[in-house]
Amino acid sequence: QVHLVESGGGLVQAGVPLRLSCAASVGTDTIMSMGWFRQAPGKERQFVAAITWSGGDTYYGDSVKGRFTISRDKGKNTVYLQMNSLKPEDTAVYYCAAPSPYGPALTSSNVYSLVLWDYWGQGTQVTVSS
């Protein structure tokens, strides 16, 4: 079982950076990868970024490439999302997620699929004002 807790959301003006954190409590499981999704009101949950735990391979959604950076601290079982050049359209609830350690490996083809991600945090609100 994996328990995820996000922090770091808030209200910022456009262009002001913000960093989200997600701490994982994994029990006897092993983290294989972690990711971030977001959901704006009335919209579907959208893939933002993901990182593999061992090799640190990263994946990004098209709308955040070049502005957001995902990283991890293996010793703290924590993943970060550094968000720069924020825009009002980045406003959403941001969710941390992790797949089952017994599921398929993360690839550029399956990373966007919600089905891959078994564990979810409670979400943290990010609001960007213009």
Descriptive account of the structure:
This protein is mostly beta strands. It has no helices and eleven strands. Strands 2, 4, 5, 6, 9, 10 and 11 form a seven-stranded mixed β-sheet that branches. It has a four-stranded antiparallel β-sheet with strand order 1-3-8-7, with no helix packed on it. Strand 5 and strand 6 form a beta hairpin. The model has no long low-confidence stretch (mean pLDDT 94).
Which labels suit this protein?
single chain; 130 residues; mainly beta; 7-stranded mixed beta sheet; 4-stranded antiparallel beta sheet; 11 strands; 0% helix; 49% strand
Topology:
Layout: E1 3-7, E2 10-13, E3 18-25, E4 33-39, E5 46-52, E6 58-60, E7 68-73, E8 78-83, E9 92-99, E10 117-120, E11 124-129
Strand content: over 45%
Number of helical elements: 0
Rg to the nearest angstrom? 14 Å
Mean of residue pLDDT values: 94
What gross morphology would you assign?
A: globular
What low-confidence regions span 5 or more consecutive residues with pLDDT below 50?
A: none
What profile does the largest beta sheet have? 7 strands, mixed
Structural class: mainly beta
User: Termini, distance in Å?
Assistant: 40 Å
Oligomer: single chain
Instruction: Please give the number of β-strands.
Output: 11
As a percent range, the share of helical residues equals under 10%
List the helices and strands in order.
EEEEEEEEEEE
